[in-house]
Amino acid sequence: MRIESEILQNTLSKPDLHTRWANVYYSGRNNIFYEIAFDYIKKILGRLVGETMLDAGCGNGAHSVRLAQRGFKVTAVDFSDEALKLCNENLKIHNLDSKVKVRKASLLELDFKDDSFDNVLCWGVLMHIPEIKVALNELCRVIKPGGNLILCEVSKNALETTSGRFIKLILNKQGKELQTDAGIECWTETSSGNFLVRKMDFKWLKSYLKSKKFQVIKHFPGQFTELYTRVFPIFLKNIVLAFNEIWFKYIKLTSPSLTQIIIFRKNVN
To answer: Is 0.90 topped by the overall pTM?
Structure first.
């Protein structure tokens, strides 16, 4: 596992993936979905302005900006210098560089004391971490009793995931997928190096965090599909993104959704 983590760190030490993610996931109409989602998350938390929030695996800082704009005292961490560079640039654009603390840190070994934060956000990050239990243990450790852990991950049981596996089976192009307790893992080759993507088994995730004295507060859909990452004409991308917004706001079915958001609360006792 340590060797796999080192491979991943080497891949993410280069700018390619970070730049692509910023362009694909955090640009154009996609930002409308995130604004809606983060308003909803804040409503569920129902907490006072000024609570602390760790953005664990902050990437380009897009969500750190959203959290700060919603009144949280944000600390953003990532182990990638390239990601932190983008994060700092993003914060400056939004005049938040003096309000968000940015630090270099690995989710496998966070440099914070126990019970340091009221809330922790980890959005689309665990799916790329081989040592997922180690990362979860660290996230759990730094949350105060009564605090919240907000996770967004891709579901292994989503309609897009299962249909994709079926199509690959028919075409005999299954790839090197590995079924683990945490979900379905697949290593792919990118321009920056080997890269892990895990489709989460949310049943396992709930069970594991229950053993760490966390209870589920809310489990709800994220984006129904990420086809917009593969649909090239802008008008088609916008149609897909508009459908994601409608799904999140009105349809609200969790199981078929590709990405799912789950909020856990740490037991006080």
So the answer is: yes
